[in-house]
Amino acid sequence: YERTILAGDFNAHLPLLGYKDYNYRGREVEDLLNSTNLILDKDMNSTPTLLHRRHLTTSRPDLIVVSADLYEQITVRVGEDIDSDHSPVLIKINKLVKPEIKRRPF
Predict the structure, then answer these.
(1) In what helix (H) or strand (E) does residue 32 lie, and over which residues does it extend?
(2) Which residue, 74, 80, 82, 46, is CA-closest to 62?
């Protein structure tokens, strides 16, 4: 993959994210990461993005998956509370390098 960012509420449970076990989506995400050049921009030390208000627990169901060519060029930040159980996730692309186009002289 090139210039690829996947972001969303995956509800994927992976031990890498601090969950005790895998769920089906967690295994699917891990298989995708292990078979491509995509990188997960989260781990168990990342800021949680979900507050379970009923149980007062937090988790990280909102994932950012980035192709290797963009990984060093992005900054991901969890935003302020917006009166939702999910916090916004802000992705900033710091610099995109345009591919060099070689033209033949006339």
Answers:
(1) helix 24-35
(2) 46
- Rounded CA-CA distance 11/52 in Å is 13
Give CA–CA dist 98/9, Å, rounded: 30
> Could you write out the DSSP letters of every residue in 49-100?
-EEETTTTEEE--EEEEEEHHHHTTEEEEE----SSSBPPEEEEE---PPPP
What's the pLDDT tens digit per position in 1-34?
A: 999 999 999 999 999 999 999 999 999 999 999 9
Nearest alpha carbon to residue 59 among 27, 29, 16, 6: 16
pTM reported for the whole predicted model: 0.81
CA 19 – CA 26 distance, rounded (Å): 10
